[in-house]
Amino acid sequence: MPIAIDLAGRVAIVTGGHGGLGRVIVSHLASAGAKVVIFDRATDVPTTVSAECYEVDITDENSVAAAVDRLFAKEKRIDILVNNAGVQGPILPVSEVSLAQWKETLAVNLTGTFICSKAVVPHMLKERWGRIVNISSVQGKEGTVFSGPYAVSKAGQITLAKVMGKELATSGITVNCITPTVVDAGMIHGIDEDRKAHLLQRIPMRRFCRPDEVADMVTFVASDACAFTTGAVFDLSGGRATW
Fold first, then answer.
1. CB within 10 Å: which end of the chain, N or C, has fewer?
2. How many domains in the chain?
3. Is 67 inside any structural domain?
4. 8 A C-beta contact, residue 185 and residue 19
């Protein structure tokens, strides 16, 4: 029997929903029937996106708590959290990375994931149902050179999903991670052509991941069709990663 993804009645949060990948994730979840709310520092929602937007700094616990409380007061439930917001960080050897650059990258990519996840879990526990999906990266598996802060933050997202997945395993809440290779969306556009060519050579399929491929995986992992998997890592690396 074909898998039909139906998220009707579900309320979803997508952090960083204004970015190139975020917009596609939002669109896919909305198309599956979910009520989607974007948590982002920018609030000018594109007309093509069917979602509300809350101005939120995911590195600020008070900002996240206020937004989650506002959403729960309005919708009376929070079912899905997609931790998508992220920054690339410096492209440097670790020995040349400043402490400020290190802290900024981990604050958004890892601490923001922790803050948002912690904030929604109590509401999911009330319903005995929830889906938390971390958008990590293959770099978190490999430890890519010259991307130390980014790779470390993404490895942290993987481990956080594994820990929370086990902690919440009997609660009806699943916590999983998706690890794409380079996605042909917003972040890649800031990388020079030589580095793009280098990254492309590392992908056996010889192309970058498409945003819709990530969004399709998110929609599946956020659904009832993915009920018996938690603390897992879903690879989207075109053969680059072997686990």
1. N
2. 1
3. yes
4. yes
pLDDT at 186: 66
Q: Please give the single-letter amino acid code of residue 183.
A: V
pLDDT tens track for 7-48: 999 999 999 999 999 999 999 999 999 999 999 998 776 556
Q: Identify whether 119 is part of a domain.
A: yes
DSSP-derived secondary structure for 190-238: GS-HHHHHHHHHT-TT-SPBPHHHHHHHHHHHTSGGG-S--S-EEEEST
Within a 10 A sphere around the Cβ of 234, how many other Cβ atoms? 18
pLDDT tens-digit map of 153-188: 999 999 999 999 999 999 999 999 999 999 998 667
How many other CB atoms are there within 10 angstroms of residue 141's CB atom? 20
| Token duo for residue 16 | 């960083």
Burial class from Cβ neighbours inside 10 Å (0-12, 13-18, 19+) for residue 145 reads exposed
Measured CA to CA, the distance from residue 83 to residue 234 in angstroms comes to: 15
Q: Is 25 within 8 Å of 85 (Cβ atoms)? A: no
**Euclidean distance between CA atoms 203 and 165, whole angstroms:** 29
Give the active site residues. Answer: 150
